[in-house]
Amino acid sequence: MAPKEDMLPPGWEDLDRQMGQLFMMGFDGTTVNPQIRSLIEDYHLGSVLLTAKNLKSAEEATRLVLELQTIARNAGHPVPLFIALDQENGGVNSLFDEIYIRQFPSAMGIAATGSKPLARDVALATGQELKAVGVNWILGPVLDVLTNVRNQPLGVRTTGDDPHEVSQYGVEFMKGFQQARLVTCGKHFPSYGNLEFLGSQTDVPIITESLEQLSLSALVPFRNAIIHGLDSMMVGGVSMSSAGVNVMHACLSEQVVDGLLRKDLKFNGVVVSECLEMEALTHNIGVGGGTVMATNAGCDIILLCRSFPVQQEAINGLKLGVENGIIGRARIEQSLRRVLKMKAKCTSWEQALNPPGLTSLTQMQPSHTSLSTKAYNTSISVVRDKNNYLPLSNILEPNDELLLLTPLVKPLPASAVTRSVTEHMNMSLDPVAWDRTAAVLSGESVFKELGRSLSRQRNGRVLHTSYTSNGVRPIHENLIDRASAVIVVTADANRNLYQHGFTKHVSMICKAQFTAAGEVREKPLIVIAVSSPYDFAMDPSIGTYVCTYDFTETALQALVKVLYGELAPMGSLPGSISRSQKLHQARQHWLVESFNEDRDSQALDTLLAALREDSASGQRSELLGVTSSSFLLRKEEISEAHFVVRNSSTQALYGFCSTYFFPFTGTGVIGALIVDPSRRKLSIGHSLHNRAIRTLLQRKGMKRFQLGTRLPGIYLGIPAANPVERKRLRQWFANLGWNTALSRPVCSVVLRNLATWTPPDVIIQNLQGTDVSYDLVHGWDYADTVLEHIKTNTRQGVAEIYRMALGGAPDCGIIRARRQGDGLILGTVVVYNERSTLAEHMPALRSTHTLTGGISSPIISPSVGDYATVIQGLTFLGIKQIRRQGADAVILDCVDGDSNYDFLSAMGFSMLHSFEEVNCDAATWTMMPPS
């Protein structure tokens, strides 16, 4: 007999009744329709999803929920229904009621307040209002980390790009909901924070991060929420493709649900699938089969949003799976026990049939209104105001005209608050002007109240018109010329690129305005991001930049108060950008001096030795063979400047930073940044970093920055061999403004025991079966064709490596792969020995403790069809050349990407050093304050 705790309560013997509890389904309409009634009565449906399409007001929502519960009770359900909905605040609210339901900021808006107690208070208030209308399950909190802010379909639904900050706010939201006696559902596991959209919009988005990468960042909030008692988890329908995981739909994968979520993260609550009414799933698997797969993967509740035939297909598919033995009864009962346990936390028939309703909402109204005002007033963020344009009274005389330009936007998803927008989507570009008594525009309603509020505050007129993907039109130019100041509103310009282009164009026009005397006079421009704060967060050319995090009426009311000086802005950008700006301002502690070779070389060698001996930093194998001279290129065409923090009394170095500027591509590089292990966390690294950035910014033609360089080949980027150290360094650089989410893998590999090495037979066969010939060339006679070939590669140091090889005969050469017939170069690599000038800048050659030759910087033409064969052919010829010179090992450096490594490992190479190369625009740091 099974243990007592595993026994089901009486009344649950029937399979159909058991299976009904394992589905959550939605329906169309604001009243009970025959389909949802049938699902509850005939199919024993246990959970109902309500959306904005079902809910017109708090009163009608209460009535609808009560009717659903009454139907379930009359149909003999042993326990009440789960009534679930999304209520994320900001623009994503399923239930909206101007009188009884309060509006609160989005998740990112709450994070902008910097107050975690406020996050819990807002979640509690939200939960109490939902509980009053009969809801018992909230589909939240959102626990996704925006690991790539440039590609972020979630936008302000998350609390930012820092996993620990997202984790902390997620727990506060969760605790607030639970305090209101709702059960919670974390989403969207394993992460929607860095999705790639590789095909059409109907294709499933893909997660390309490895499980290790996810574990170090994206999974942190999920793991923390589980530890603190998360009730349920929604697993997304995304696909996953990386080393160690290849999943078509995460919620159908046993590896994701049972392995990663259940076993690795030790989650014992209810697992909910993403809605299976996905076109890709329907086309590839079918909903019936998908339901069986999701259940076998470990999902306890299967979500199907609205289509009654599809919902029936799912139920029948599950039943067929049980009858055919694909799913065991024990698996069904396991999920049922989890569901019943969670229902016992949040509902009973006494509660379900007696919702508090409007009486309770009326009592909450005063305190919740005050909380809403407080939350919005403290979330509005003035990111920059370089020229003190705020408050507007600084720049506008009473009779001056103010121009408001707003984008044509679609209603926010799942938001009842924006229903009215659809009534006004036929937008006119005709300007509408208000004075304090004029009627408001008949244009796009989502921003009309903003214009109205701006006009109420002052005697002067407010001009308002919209802009579209058609860009700046003559009417816009005329209005800009007429107005004394311009406000441009953007809403997710990262995804609506026309907004970005329009705003930059308007900025250019404002900067080129002329006075009556013909003098250039910049017209005040204020840019307001009313959704994602990342639109212009790192663009200092936008001198006055304000963020509201949503464009609900309440948010825009608080914005107007800030613009007119009635309210001091208190919000700050969440996550790494805000910290980077604060660090730039707060950590200028150490005197940074230019590196002096005569004075500092010996001290730098001592510092390098200390780093190599530092066991806590993972033995720092990258520094084997590195000396103080390794950092010095002494190349006329490359500007180099190196910096130290030192003890002027003892001459000891506490930190060192090397920088290089490559004029041809306008790239400034931080080639190394090292700090004495015994003096970490004292801001030495920050001081060196800031000095390096300032110096590079002064270079004429500076366009972009890069962490890591191919020449000298010491650090090709952030060291990636040690996962703990890699995570720490990624976070450290992210805090300084580097977008580490956009890093690119690069590595050096080694092949040992050359004397006994033989190439795999398949490689010899492949090389013999192509129309590619290979040769080794030396000297400048071959420069034109080689340099023409490599100009397609923009990685820093690569061109210089090739120039050194061309001038380094006989110790350096270039192996070419050429197409037979026309002699077109298809690929090249540099080959060199320990006596070459190039070897002085490639210290990895000295780390093998044996005679070693080098192959560097393979570059394959983008037009090559058989990429693997060409790179293996070049490498094979390089190995033969090096072995002919008596070397026992070969190092191949500057290898791009994981796929190249796969090709080389097939030849016997193993990883020597792995890095993550990071790039960003120079504009990232032009906002830094002066020293």
TrEMBL record:
Residues 638-710 form the N-acetyltransferase domain. Signal peptide: none annotated. This is Beta-n-acetylglucosaminidase. GO terms for molecular function: acyltransferase activity, transferring groups other than amino-acyl groups; hydrolase activity, hydrolyzing O-glycosyl compounds. Coiled coil: none annotated. The keyword Membrane does not apply. Belongs to the glycosyl hydrolase 3 family. Keywords: Carbohydrate metabolism, Glycoprotein, Glycosidase, Hydrolase. InterPro entries: Acyl_CoA_acyltransferase, GH, Glyco_hydro_3_C_sf, Glyco_hydro_3_N, Glyco_hydro_3_N_sf, GNAT_dom, NagZ_Beta-hexosaminidase. Residues 15-341 form the Glycoside hydrolase family 3 N-terminal domain.
